[in-house]
Amino acid sequence: MTIVQATETLPGYSFAYLDEQTKRMIRRAILKAVAIPGYQVPFASREMPLPYGWGTGGIQVTASVIGRDDVLKVIDQGSDDTTNAVSIRKFFARTAGVRTTDRTPEATIIQTRHRVPETPLQAGQIMVYQVPMPEPLRWLEARETETRKMHALEDYGAMYVKLYEDIAHSGRITTAYDYPVMVNQRYLMRPSPIPRFDNPKLDRSPALQLFGAGREKRIYALPPHTPVRSLDFADHPFTIERWTERCAICGADDSFLDEIVTDDRGGRQFVCSDTDYCATRVAAGHRA
Amino acid sequence: MNRDSPVEPVLEIDGLSKRFGARWALRDVSFDLWPGEVLAIVGESGSGKTTLLNAIAGRVTPDAGTVLYRAAAGKEGGGSAADLVSLSEAERRRLLRTDLGLVHQNPRDGLRLSVSAGANIGERLMAAGARHYGDIRARALDWLQRVEIEAARIDDMPATFSGGMQQRLQIARNLVSEPRIVLMDEPTGGLDVSVQARLLDLLRDLVAEIGVSVVLVTHDLGVARLLAHRLLVMQQGRVIESGLTDQVLDDPQHAYTQLLVSSVLQL
Q: Based on C-alpha coordinates, what's the Rg of chain B?
């Protein structure tokens, strides 16, 4: 599938569902977030026509930055075809009348949950992440007043306690997703529940990356080319996941693989989690 | 000790006052704390002991007075004195996790119960910038042994420790950063007497060994006599008597101190 032209838009609704005042409010929050990379900006999150936890933060951010000329791609766990991705894509096709696509290079806005596309992002693209829990310090401090103060004072040493615990109990850092990062050597940030495989893609990305947490009412951002460093120890450096297998469809050895159970006799295979990357490789003649 | 430079107090407290509504919790409290000295503050409940400790630790903002802290020569800001009351929040926090320690009466207030003993000890090191897992673990192991906890328990949760072990772990967690001053609020409260005795022995050894200064708040005169070089007696927010521990306890001058000393159970 390449670019799909929207057929009809819903009469009686504002462009991209949200009213203009709300979009201006969210844009102001986004501007502040871009000005202070990694800092969580509070915003007046709205009720959306889907439950919290289904991407209300990401949808509000997308609705506020999308224009008539944009081409939207939505992925969930790397796939364009899962329920959540299809619903959100159709939502914007109907409320904004924008064109949609599966192809990473064709998209101007990519809303995502749990993955960053394997195809490198380009300047001018906007990544929108759906964030369930924006506060990286929440596990050790329940009070919002205190975590804000810790951010203000750059009081982040206790965050290493978590990594220490991983190594003490498992011999290595076992945090596999939502792996904490330091943004521009200043703010500690949760990258949303992407696998740590994707963390290096955040670092100095040419795309603008926006993070929206609807239930927690926070927006934060990584402007293009922002340095993003994953926390680690000198003797236990940050590493990404590796597989001994290759993708069973396209043969890729450089992409994040999902394990698929194929029958009830223990049969299984590994395939690319990014369906567009896999399909593009197959179209180019790659085979397992 | 360098003979050219006279020894200066690590802590100079001057005119410290704090009111809660109409009640004075602290009223014009002044004293000095010298390097390696253990100073006990005794008095009944409500006499202002804990407020004084909290004011030094920056957990309570006093209405008047200064708390001058002098860092060790050679350390960051060494030699010069800083007023902990007027210090910026960032600076105060840095001092609180490096140069100052605070041992709570209830170890649950001073420990992170959801992480292992080793992580509890290592936290201050990591907060101060230690980023080498092997080094942090080695220091944690060393301190576990110094507070007489088996090395094999380094990865156990503090919740599985006995009350005495939790208190020793809390002490290790504070001493690992080699602070100049440790503030202790009833460190032996809630422990049975045999465990208390072992903890007191341990504290006395550690204090002598690393030369840390201690402000010890207690209502137990026995603990004060065993640990403290000097004693302050507080009543209704004022210091009513001070002096060498043995001197105050053997020859109390103030009527209230006499009452306090005569109230101790003799076995």
A: 18
Do B97 and B79 touch, CB atoms closer than 8 A?
A: no
Q: Which long-range contacts (CB under 8 A, 24 or more apart) does A199-206 make?
A: A199/A228, A199/A230, A199/A238, A199/A240, A200/A230, A200/A240, A201/A116, A201/A120, A201/A121, A202/A116, A202/A228, A203/A227, A203/A228, A203/A229, A204/A228, A205/A121, A205/A127, A206/A121, A206/A122, A206/A123, A206/A125
Q: Cβ(B104)–Cβ(B182) under 8 Å?
A: no
The token duo for B240 is 């009513």
Q: pLDDT over 90 for what percent of chain A? A: 89
pLDDT at B199: 85
pLDDT, mean of residues A126-150: 94
Residue contact A157–B123, C-beta within 8 A: yes
Quote the distance between the C-alpha of residue A92 and its chain's center.
18
Out of B90, B116, B127, closest to residue A168 by CB: B116
Query: What three-state secondary structure class fits B78?
Result: coil
* Average pLDDT over every residue of A40-51: 94
Residues B133, A167: C-beta atoms closer than 8 Å: yes
| Mean pLDDT score across all residues of chain B | 90
Q: A268: which 2 tokens?
A: 């299984």
What pLDDT, on the 0 to 100 scale, is given for residue B71? Answer: 83
Name the residue among B90, B93, B155 with its Cβ closest to that of A169: B155
CB contact under 8 A, B123 and A140: no
**How much is the ipTM here?**
0.84
Check: CB of residue B62 under 8 Å from CB of residue B13: no
In angstroms, the CA B207 to CA B202 distance is 9
**DSSP SS3 for B226:** helix
What lies within 8 Å, CB to CB, of A202 at 6+ separation is A116, A181, A191, A209, A222, A228
Rg of chain A in Å (alpha carbons): 19
Tokens 């889907």 locate to A50
Model confidence at A139, pLDDT cuts 50, 70, 90, reads confident
Cβ within 8 Å of residue A7, ≥6 positions away: none
pLDDT band at residue B1 using 50, 70 and 90 as cut-offs:
very low
pTM of the full structure:
0.86
Residue B118 to residue B113: CA distance in whole angstroms: 12
Give the residue from chain B lying closest to A141, CA to CA.
Answer: B112
Cβ(B163)–Cβ(B195) under 8 Å? yes
Whole-Å CA distances, A106 to A109, A110, A121, A124: 9, 10, 10, 11
The closest alpha carbon to B33, from B84, B106, B87, B75, belongs to B84
